[in-house]
Amino acid sequence: MGKIKLLITAILALLAMQHLQASATFKIRFYATNWGMNQSWDSYCEQVKKAGYDGLEVWVPGSKEEQKQMFDAFRKYNLAYAFLSGGGGATFEQYYDSYVKNVEMAVQLKPDFVNCHTGKDYFTFEQNKKLIEAADVISKKYNIPVMHETHRGRFSFAAHITRQFLEQIPQLQLTLDISHWCNVHESLLSDQTETVAMALARTGHIHARIGQPQAPQVNDPAAPEWKSTVDQHLTWWDEVVRLRKEAGKNQLTITTEFGPSGYLPTLPYTQQPVADQWSVNVYMLNLLKSRYQQ
After folding, report:
1. Residues of the chain below pLDDT 70
2. Where in the numbering of this chain does the Xylose isomerase-like TIM barrel domain appear (predicted)?
């Protein structure tokens, strides 16, 4: 009996040590968005690097010339990269063909991961499921993670709908942009905690934008009137970090994705944005780096 107790104690000590080692080496990699970028790739990547980002998450440029400019800038400033992808078309068949083509093109460019805008909110469950499964096949073929963003207009536009996919597709991994759900459900989701917990457990990437019940983006997360809303988002993200560490994962990726004018509230008549998009995203970067000691 004594030997068994010693063995159990040794095993528990080993597991605890492994957990501590995993926590010690856990890394969060931060990506900038190029949404709203109005300068050259070289100039913007220099700005991104100086701000302290690890890389960028972007849509693949349509022209080979611009792709070259982008990759040249990534290499010059030693920036990692991830791609967004999606589909289009007047029918599901057209959308499916476009989606598969675009996702495969994106993974062939060897990003850290691909974040998909998958499906439509009006496609059937089976149609959206077919898209998710097609992306999974491509992901496994190229050994590149493919995740699916929680986003208005997509299969994942609402928490309770996304739950159905999570329950029936075990391999489904999310890009958590929970700001959309706050807007769709006109709440901070206090009445859907079980569903949110399920989504957090299946999150592989985060879009760190702060949503609120009347919009997918607050005007300025540093403003004191948004403190409780920001705190709720931080609580959700804290749980993702905790779960990733607990699962023995060695990293998490986060994109600060506050959008430009149009998404960012503007004044009437002048269309002057009420905050500076770049400054807001850098504020979020520094807030999260400090919080997670990165």
Report:
1. 1-24
2. 46-208
Measure the CA dihedral 227/230/235/237, to 10°: -160
**Strand 174-176 vs strand 203-207: parallel, antiparallel, or unpaired?**
parallel
C-alpha separations of 198 from 30, 129, 201, 210, 234 in Å: 24, 18, 5, 20, 17
Q: Are 53 and 79 in contact (CB under 8 A)?
A: yes
Cα distance between residue 86 and residue 203, in whole Å? 19
Q: Identify the CA nearest to 226 among candidates 239, 211, 241.
A: 211
* Angle value at C-alpha 198, between 195 and 201, nearest 5 degrees: 150
- Indicate the pairing of strand 251-256 with strand 146-149: unpaired
Confidence at residue 12, expressed as pLDDT on a 0 to 100 scale: 47
Tokens 């919080």 identify what position?
A: 291
How much is the pTM? 0.92
Radius of gyration, alpha carbons of the chain: 20
Inter-residue contact 34 to 56 (CB < 8 Å):
yes
Distance CA 168, CA 275 (A): 41
pLDDT at residue 294, rounded to an integer = 76
Instruction: Identify the CATH class of 22-293.
Output: alpha beta
pLDDT (0 to 100) of residue 17? 46
pLDDT at 273: 95
What is the SS3 assignment for 210?
coil
How far apart (Å, rounded) are the C-alpha atoms in residues 203 and 232? Answer: 17
Cα 218 to chain center, whole Å? 18
Which pLDDT belongs to residue 4?
A: 55
Strands (E), the chain: 27-33, 55-59, 80-85, 114-116, 146-149, 174-176, 203-207, 251-256
